[in-house]
Design goal:
Number of helices: 7
Radius of gyration: 17 Å
Strand content: 15-25%
Structural class: alpha/beta
Distance between the termini: 36 Å
Largest sheet: 7 strands, mixed
Helix content: 25-40%
């Protein structure tokens, strides 16, 4: 079972954090637009995409099937602000599911997350308001229907249904807010995936302050 751990750093938003204990037989890949970026533990892949730097990183995060070969059975995404402490046995954590994500520790509602994003100036209020209006008025998405963090994602890499949902997720991020936590609950509302309280409970990652 081949596993790839991957991340993306575009626009110099984060510093690339080295992996303290890389495992043999696992590929660690960082996509970047920084031609000067070097690493002792990550394979650096330079990539220029026709979008803004934030969405470039989001595209790679959301659609790994576009950028990583079919040889992988599993993939693990970590945000650039994360330090990977250990490489988990992803197949064991996923079990029969194709996706694993962490429940948000502070909120359970996408509408409350939208308010927080506007308050913290994470994106343009106008586009967030348009997105929430679509959720409320068109698809009638309920409040307090769950919220997830997406800093770490475990996947069965080539699961067909998941690939289609990843593409749908990207289309929402491309159309509306770049904050992918605002679209994840809607896209995956009817999808059977594994939720857990905090990735920290598995002692896998640690959050690190980013530059931005």
């Amino acid at each position: 079972m081949r596993l790839v751990v991957y991340t993306a750093i575009f626009g110099n938003y984060d510093n690339l954090i080295e992996i303290p204990t890389p495992k043999n037989g696992i590929d660690y890949i960082c996509f970047t637009d920084n031609a000067k970026l070097r690493s002792a533990t990550w394979e650096i892949r330079h990539k220029l995409l026709d979008t803004d730097s934030c969405r470039a990183a989001r595209l790679i995060k959301i659609c790994p099937h576009r950028f990583l070969p079919d040889k992988y059975d599993y993939s693990m995404w970590i945000d650039g602000s994360m330090r990977l402490k250990i490489t988990p046995l992803v197949s064991s954590l996923l079990g029969e599911s194709a996706l694993m994500a962490s429940i948000h520790p502070s909120r359970d509602c996408v509408y409350e997350e939208a308010i927080a994003c506007k308050k913290l100036k994470k994106d343009e209020p106008k586009i967030i308001n348009e997105q929430m209006k679509f959720y409320k008025d068109v698809i009638k998405f309920p409040s307090h229907a769950g919220l997830w963090e997406t800093g770490v994602l475990l996947r069965k890499h080539n699961d067909r249904e998941l690939v289609l949902l990843n593409e749908l997720w990207w289309n929402v991020v491309k159309l509306y807010s770049k904050r992918d936590q605002l679209s994840f609950p809607i896209v995956f509302s009817d999808y059977n995936f594994v939720s857990f309280r905090r990735m920290a409970q598995y002692k896998i990652v640690k959050s690190v302050q980013h530059n931005g």
